[in-house]
Design brief:
With 261 residues, this protein is an alpha+beta fold. Among the domains are: 78-221, Sandwich (Jelly Rolls), CATH 2.60.120.10; 228-257, no CATH class. The chain is built from 4 helices and 13 strands. It has helices spanning 47-65, 225-230, 236-243, 247-257; strands spanning 4-5, 14-17, 22-24, 118-123, 137-143, 148-153, 159-165, 168-173, 179-184, 189-192, 197-202, 209-215, 223-224. The strands form 3 sheets. It has a 5-stranded antiparallel beta sheet with strand order 4-5-12-7-10, with no helix packed on it. Strand 8 (168-173) and strand 9 (179-184) form a beta hairpin. The protein starts with a strand and ends with a helix. Residues 1-33 and 56-68 have low confidence and may be disordered.
Length: 261
C-alpha cells in the first residue's frame, strides 16, 4: 500500500480522513520491484514495514497537532517555557479553576504618558492563558489626545477593532498599496487583514478615545514599522539607502526611538 497525505482532502479512495489530513489507498503495481541483494548483517525493511512506519508517523503528527481540539480547552502552562507552533502545553485539567477563564486586565486604562500618547493592554496567551489553542485574543486600546498607534502589522492574526467611545481614524494598506481609510465613531467596527500595515489615530480632538480589539490568534504578534527601522543597530548608511532618507533624518529618528549605528 502506498500512503499519500493530502492537506486538501480532495482525492478519491479515501480510507481515513480528518479535517486536517487524509489517507488514501492505491493499488500495488503489477510488476514486482527488482530484487536487491541484501548485504550480510543489514536488514532492508519490506514495503509493508515502510508503509506501516509512514502510517505511524502520520498518526503521531495528527495526535500531536490536534491535542487541543481533542479536549474542551487547554489552559496554557506558560511556566513550562515550552512554546510550539500550536501553542503552549496544557495545565492538567484537575488544576484548572474558574478563575483561569476570567481576565480583568482590560478594565483599567493604560498609561498613555509616552512618545505615542497611547497604550495597548493585551489579553494574549501570555497574559490570559485560557485562550491557548482557541484561536482568539483581545486587547484594550487607549488613545490620549493626539495619540497614535503607528503603522504596524500583526503577522499571525486578523484584527477587529470596536470603538467604545471617542473617534478613531483607522486605515490599512493592501499588498497592492491601496489605502483603506475610515474615521470611526462610538459603536463602529473595522477589520484589519492579517499581515497588512495599519494604524489608529485619535480623532476626538482634546478628548481621549477607547477601543477594544480582538484577534484571530492567541498570539497575534506585533511589529511597529518605525521601531523596526529606527530602534535597532542597523547602520544609518544602509537605512539612508533603503528608505531614501538623508543622514540627518535617520539619526534624528534613531535618537528619538533609541536606535544606534
Amino acid at each position: 500500500m502506498k500512503v499519500k497525505i493530502d492537506l486538501n482532502g480532495c482525492y478519491q479512495n479515501t480510507i481515513w480522513s480528518s479535517p486536517y489530513l487524509s489517507i488514501y489507498s492505491y493499488p500495488r503495481p503489477l510488476k514486482k520491484p527488482p530484487h536487491h541483494h541484501q548485504e550480510k548483517g543489514k536488514i532492508i525493511p519490506s514495503s509493508s514495514t515502510t508503509a506501516m512506519l509512514h502510517i505511524f508517523l502520520l498518526f503521531s503528527l495528527i495526535f500531536s497537532s490536534t491535542n487541543v481540539l481533542a479536549q474542551d480547552f487547554c489552559v496554557a502552562n506558560t511556566a513550562s517555557g515550552i512554546v510550539t507552533p500550536s501553542g503552549y502545553p496544557c495545565i492538567m485539567e484537575a488544576n484548572v479553576t474558574s478563575d483561569d477563564f476570567a481576565f480583568s486586565g482590560l478594565g483599567l486604562p493604560g498609561n498613555t504618558s509616552n512618545i505615542i500618547s497611547a497604550a495597548v493592554t493585551p489579553a494574549f496567551v501570555g497574559q490570559y492563558p485560557a485562550v491557548n489553542g482557541l484561536g482568539l485574543s483581545a486587547a484594550r486600546l487607549d488613545l490620549a489626545p493626539g495619540g497614535v498607534i503607528p503603522m504596524h502589522t500583526h503577522p499571525g492574526a486578523n484584527e477587529l477593532l470596536y470603538v467604545v467611545h471617542g473617534h478613531i481614524t483607522c486605515g490599512f494598506i493592501s499588498s497592492a498599496n491601496k489605502v483603506y481609510l475610515k474615521t470611526l465613531k462610538r459603536g463602529d467596527v473595522m477589520v484589519f487583514p492579517q499581515g497588512l500595515l495599519h494604524f489608529q489615530i485619535n480623532a476626538a480632538g482634546k478628548r481621549p478615545s477607547l477601543a477594544i480589539v480582538t484577534f484571530s490568534s492567541p498570539n497575534p504578534g506585533l511589529q511597529i514599522l518605525d521601531f523596526a527601522l529606527f530602534a535597532n543597530d542597523l547602520p544609518s548608511s544602509l537605512l539612508e539607502k533603503s528608505t531614501f532618507l538623508d543622514d540627518a533624518q535617520v539619526k534624528k529618528l534613531k535618537g528619538v526611538l533609541g536606535g544606534t549605528g
